[in-house]
Amino acid sequence: MTTGRRVWLGPAGVTALEAASLVVGFLTQLLLMRSLGPAGYGQCVLAVAVGVGLSTLTDFGFNFSGTRQAVHWAGEPARRHRLFWAVQLTKLGVGGCALSVMALIPGSGPLLPAAAISVLGAILFPTWYLMARARLLVAAGTLLAGRVAALGAIALWVREPQDIGLGSVLNCAAPLVAVALASMDPELRGVRQPCRLQANELGRAFRLGASTVWINAVPALGNAMVQALIGALGSHATLGQYAAADKVRAAIQGLFGALGQALFPASVAAADGARPRNRLPVVLLALACAAALPLALAPEFIIGVVAGSGFSEAAGALRVMSLAVISSTAVLGLGTLHLLAHSLDAAYARAVFAGLLVQAAALAALVPAFGAAGAAGALWIADLAALAAMVPALRRR
């Protein structure tokens, strides 16, 4: 088997499983949209976005920094074992602190159940370690099983707008099912015995995660901020219309996100000189262009199938978001597979923060005038700002 085929074989399997997850995700969101209506769905989306933000913060950058370290220690099982428990204990502390702070915020009560389930799943499911140990299919397969279980529960128990809280919790519960299944994997059985750690080991783990915590946490927390801004600048119904379109985009974007993350270890190896020049971002971007075309050509049909009646405004937002599929994939590909693979973390951080600031300003300008379509345009503008901020670092490569 050639080197190129080895690089793509595991990620291709992960992408196939993620494609199946897209189908499950579409069905889940379809059920929620039709059961809760635009306003109720907007509230559900906000609760889930906060949960995702806190769970991503709980992961604390280890999906990149922990993966990199475990890849470097591939031949040292004892060090990896200690790293595993140092990372998991750090995640426990970070997640507990994040939930405690959130509980102190006035009006956060309705959001807490979904947030707590999300944080617990992030603590227990070691995505970073499965990635580093080339157990990509295990991670993707068990998460798919968890999403199927959540879909079944939503179909059974979420029937009307009053079920917003239950729908939000079930929407965040997939990692808890996944960890029960993944715990049978030999790689996780090999590290399940806790070890006694020194304080300095926990300190090193904290610093390791802190070096890349912003990579996923800032966009996820930024997404929660975006949902809140759209609701405040428009209404819960505006947020529901935007979210209906964004769920279609995010499902496709999630596919490329999973593929990009699966290709990250190979990109690290390419940056270390173990493989030829890294062309993975170019391939990723070409695939995104193909995926964006149906969103631009038939948004009304897609929204009609996914959301049903009452979400007509989402079609215009989805057409705009077809551009964001391409721009967001470019940010992902160039950021993670080039900048992070070469340990240019600060350059990527500046780009992410620049995009988030520009998006907030664009939302303030566009949502009152253009509603959900304006919010979609703000996402595309933010990606362009992030790409522009990456240019200086990319030129140095």
From TrEMBL:
It is a multi-pass membrane protein. InterPro entries: Polysacc_synth, PolySynth_Transporter. The keyword Transmembrane applies. It is found in: Membrane. Keywords: Membrane, Transmembrane, Transmembrane helix. Its main location: membrane. The keyword Transmembrane applies. The chain crosses the membrane at residues 7-28, 40-62, 83-105, 111-129, 136-158, 164-184, 205-230, 250-270, 282-308, 320-340, 347-367, 373-394. This is O-antigen/teichoic acid export membrane protein.
